[in-house]
Structures are given as structure tokens and as C-alpha cells.
Amino acid sequence: MSTTPAHESTLQNVERTKTVGTAAENAILAEDVVEPDAASTTGSSGTSSRPEMKRVVILAGGLSHERDVSLRSGRRVAESLRGAGMDVTVLDVDASLLSALAADRPEVVWPLLHGASGEDGSVRDVLELLGLDYVGTGPRASRAAWNKAIAKNVVLGAGIDTPDYVTLPQSLFRELGAQPVLDAVVSRLGLPLVVKPNQGGSALGVTLVSRAEDLPRAMVDCFSYGELALIEKAVQGVEVAVSVVDGPDGPHALPAVEIVTDGPYDYDARYNPGRTNYFTPARLSAPVAARVAQVAVDAHVALGLRGLSRSDLIVDPDGVPHFLEVNVAPGMTETSLFPQAAHAAGLDLGGLYRQIVAQSVGARVTAI
């Protein structure tokens, strides 16, 4: 347990912020450095009125395409945890990280890293090697969830519907020729199709294809973010995101968030306010809402996820939810879906995040 005074901890955060990223990124992290509110941490006698704070390190940034989103997620969660009385430091993932963790070991690490190393299990593997408790899913299950095709296979085995799909590496198009392969895809799956990187997030490299002549361009865009493409049959319906949180009685779903955009739900629509409308809870009948919640919980359990997750689903006109993908490190920005769901459930973000952190102490299982 850290005994560092609050003002000294804040100064340490400032010093770390000075060494992280570009000027724009520093501005994001600098917003995260706030002086504690004395009224919220001390009683009338001047002594602490809260339980002793847990020492938490949030990992944010990294080198993926989603670095900026990760920085914003880290800032938001840090603000909420500090408001709940926790001692929080935000660190980037760079060559100084391991020495920083060794010099000042936290009780819990929260990897709020989006994209490859943050969600493919590799950073979590390192945290396991260091013997540190951390928020969220273990390395092996993270790797399965990060690979969309594997995740779809797992949920299919659990009886969950998912759109028909095929995965194709870029090398195959060079060996067999692009057009014959694409013709076979359209013949087998039909149109419209969704093309996306098999491993990736924030809708980067994702295209909805309604015409066969647009498929080659979609493949080029997809392969700019990864070597393996997942092409799936597009399901028409209501797009929802369902967050799941592990509680004392097991995992439970937060209210579904319905997503309505003025075009594709791409990176710009996700993180820049104005293009997307969110309805929380989603405008679903009670039976369909219950079905959607159960699918998200079932996917969470089938994939062996821990702490929290967010499943993206399409509900077809018959009220059947179709699993698209799952995220083991949901975004926590001002427009992200997990915080919206928590608010809709009437939960205080600081209290919820504090519960997630507390349940992570001692929850680490080596190499899982």
C-alpha cells in the first residue's frame, strides 16, 4: 500500500506526462492530472474519511492505430477512480514501463490499451511474468477474443448465432489472383458483405460492401490494417453493444446501447460527437432485450473472459441477436459505449470502476 501523499503523487504524474508522446498526446494526459478535492478525501477533522486508497496504474497509449483512443480512455477512468478515492498513475507502454512498475509496484494494473498489444494478450502475459494483478481477461482468452474468427467459432460452439464468414490472408490473393477469389466469396456469401481486419478495433479498415465492384477496394483498405481479412455476410437490423461486468454473483449485462449513424459506424462516427445517435437502453422489446443480454453474458462465459467485456451484436427483424465480435478492453472515452451503459443502469462510474479494480486483486491466474 502506497503512503505517498496525494500532492506528491500528482507531481509524479506530471513528471511522467512530460515524457510521454507528442504535444497533443501530452495535452490529453495532462488533463488527467488533477489535484484531489480535499472535501472528498478528508472529514471535518482533517483526517481521511475514506478507506485507505489502493495503488492503481493505468496503462494507456501504446503504439497501435488506436493510441489516441487509449489515451482518452485512460484519462477518463483515472478521473473516475480518483473521484472514488483511489491513488492512480497513468503510464504509457514504452521502454521505461517495466522499470517504473518494478520501482513502484502497484496493487493493480488496468490495461486500457486498444489494438494489438493491448488486446492480444501480450501485455497481460508480461504482467503475469511480473506477478502483478491486473484488471480484465487473462492472456490466453484475450488472444482468442482478439482473433475475430476464433471468437466466432467459440460462440458458435456455445449455440450463439453469428453471421456466416470466411477468413482470407493477403498472400492468397497474390497466389490465386484477386478476382477469382472475390467472385467465389460473393457467390458463396452473397451481398451485402462486411469486410474487416480479423484482428483490430475501432472499425479501422472496416467496409460495408453492397456492390461486387466495390469489394476489391474494401480488401485493399482492410489489408492496410492487417494481413488477414474476415469477410462476413451483412445482417440487416439494429446494431447494439452490450457490456458485461463480473460481479459477486457472476457476470451480468448492463443495458444495451443502440447505435444509429448517418452512415457507416466507422472511426470518425465512434469518436467524434455529432454523427451518431445512441439510445440507452436500446429500443428493444423486453423479451428481445433479455435475449440480447443473455447472448452477451453467454459469449463472455464461453470465451473465458474476466472483469469486463463488450459484445457487439446485430438484432435482425425477427428479434434474433447475431454476435459480431467482443472487446476485452472496451473504450472508456466520452463517447464510448461502456460508460453510457453504466449510466443507463444508474451506476456511478467511480464506484463501478472501483469495484472492478477491487475484484481484480488476487484474481490473476498465471498463464490463463
UniProtKB/TrEMBL annotation:
<keyword id="KW-0436">Ligase</keyword>
<dbReference type="InterPro" id="IPR013815">
    <property type="entry name" value="ATP_grasp_subdomain_1"/>
</dbReference>
<dbReference type="Pfam" id="PF07478">
    <property type="entry name" value="Dala_Dala_lig_C"/>
</dbReference>
<comment type="similarity">
    <text>Belongs to the D-alanine--D-alanine ligase family.</text>
</comment>
<keyword id="KW-0133">Cell shape</keyword>
<keyword id="KW-0573">Peptidoglycan synthesis</keyword>
<feature type="domain" description="ATP-grasp">
    <location>
        <begin position="152"/>
        <end position="358"/>
    </location>
</feature>
<dbReference type="InterPro" id="IPR011761">
    <property type="entry name" value="ATP-grasp"/>
</dbReference>
<dbReference type="InterPro" id="IPR016185">
    <property type="entry name" value="PreATP-grasp_dom_sf"/>
</dbReference>
<keyword id="KW-0963">Cytoplasm</keyword>
<keyword id="KW-0961">Cell wall biogenesis/degradation</keyword>
<dbReference type="InterPro" id="IPR005905">
    <property type="entry name" value="D_ala_D_ala"/>
</dbReference>
<dbReference type="GO" id="GO:0008716">
    <property type="term" value="F:D-alanine-D-alanine ligase activity"/>
</dbReference>
<protein>
    <recommendedName>
        <fullName>D-alanine--D-alanine ligase</fullName>
        <ecNumber>6.3.2.4</ecNumber>
    </recommendedName>
</protein>
<keyword id="KW-0547">Nucleotide-binding</keyword>
<comment type="function">
    <text>Cell wall formation.</text>
</comment>
<comment type="pathway">
    <text>Cell wall biogenesis; peptidoglycan biosynthesis.</text>
</comment>
<dbReference type="InterPro" id="IPR011095">
    <property type="entry name" value="Dala_Dala_lig_C"/>
</dbReference>
<keyword id="KW-0067">ATP-binding</keyword>
